[in-house]
Amino acid sequence: MSNNNNKHIHILGICGTFMGGIAAIAQSLGYKVTGSDQNVYPPMSTQLEELGIELTQGYDPKQLDPAPDMVVIGNAMSRGNACVEYVLEQGLNYTSGPEWLKNHLLRDSWVLAVAGTHGKTTTASMLAWVLEYAGLRPGFLIGGIVQNFGVSARVSDTPFFVIEADEYDTAFFDKRSKFVHYLPRTLIMNNLEFDHADIFADLNAIQTQFHHLIRTLPGKGKAIYPADDAPIQEVVERGFWSEQETLKGDWDYHLLSADGSQFEVLLHGEVQGVVTWDAIGEHNVKNAMMTIAAARHVGIPVEVSIDALAEFISPKRRMELIGEVAGIRIYDDFAHHPTAIKTTLAGLKAKVGSDEVVAILEPRSNTMKMGVHKQTLLASLEQANKAYLFEPEGLDWSLKAQAQEAGRECDSTIESIIEKVCANAQAGQHILIMSNGGFAGIHQKLLAALQAKFS
């Protein structure tokens, strides 16, 4: 690794989880790493500063003088950005994050990649933990803080590397999905639905990228996916050259508790053992089954995976209990697609039984803003006893009109939502806040308002 010591890489868009993870990995490999972002913000800025990585606020091209050996350009960067224009004008060496990762780390690794519309972060976190528990000490790069490790990325001296394989595009100059660069030997495909309407025209466009991914899997590599997922099945039917195992085919499960906190693991119809763990929801049971199958591909016995899952802690922002006030529990969750919203609510409802579930939702993704999910959004909230929706600026459709039709509350300020939630607050409620962003700090503001009310 010492031959990298004098090499300097500069990362544009360093504060995203993925690019921040690459920064940490590059530093571990001996590179001098610096970077910049429009907004240098926690938690990634804190992680990077603790590593001693120098951060610059904004995109003044002065940060590229003297020229680094390589500029790694994040996929949030586009033409017109001052640094991007400078890189092109001066002929500096540049690459994308996924391409850099492939060339400097993944080529020599046994890569376990987790792809799919939902559950990537959680499943990749489970898989990294199971490998760790089994003594394989994997490296990993995951789009969230893995609670069992306290970080989102690390390098290891073993061949195993777990990566969250995102279908989002690679860079302004490479419109293939990020995961096309990852060279997996073990591939999980959790599920497949239409999402990312800002870059994909339709489901078929996403399926094409998934088939590019399948084409990179070696013959003795293995894909693990649900047999009952029609869009994935269509991808597989386009051509398949590797080994495969399926959920609801080779593998199955039997719920022993309605909330998914206990279930039997079946392989070829034979019970392998029982998982008893802290996660809830049938979607997480499916994530766990995929994890067990993938771990078995690298030689981990099923019973070891079962023991490991008993000690698994869900990633931050995945049904994370962030506070309790006067018998009211407040959770934070990353759910932002109708399917994820529905399954997250179903898991919570199964856990709390007849207790009241209150949902607060920010439709923040580009796909949501474009109105792609407007017909299914309100129906995804049906398990919530009460629901409060936030209508952000820049929505291409009227959320308020849809909410009124469904008999749900909709407001354009978080203060108004907090006021209404507090007015109806009572012991025994479970308040679930769902957003894939910061939601203007509503979590702590609501906690403070409830504390003020009941103190």
From TrEMBL:
Stretches assigned to the Mur ligase C-terminal domain: 317-437
The Mur ligase central domain, residue ranges: 114-295
Enzyme Commission no: 6.3.2.45
Pfam families associated with the record: Mur_ligase, Mur_ligase_C, Mur_ligase_M
Binding residue positions for ATP: G116, T117, H118, G119, K120, T121, T122
Keyword ATP-binding: yes
Domain Mur ligase N-terminal catalytic: 8-105
Catalytic activity: UDP-N-acetyl-alpha-D-muramate + L-alanyl-gamma-D-glutamyl-meso-2,6-diaminopimelate + ATP = UDP-N-acetyl-alpha-D-muramoyl-L-alanyl-gamma-D-glutamyl-meso-2,6-diaminopimelate + ADP + phosphate + H(+)
SUPFAM superfamilies per record: MurCD N-terminal domain, MurD-like peptide ligases, catalytic domain, MurD-like peptide ligases, peptide-binding domain
General function of this protein: Reutilizes the intact tripeptide L-alanyl-gamma-D-glutamyl-meso-diaminopimelate by linking it to UDP-N-acetylmuramate.
NCBIfam families: mpl
The protein's name in its UniProt record: UDP-N-acetylmuramate--L-alanyl-gamma-D-glutamyl-meso-2,6-diaminoheptandioate ligase
Species this protein is from: Pseudoalteromonas phenolica
Gene label: mpl
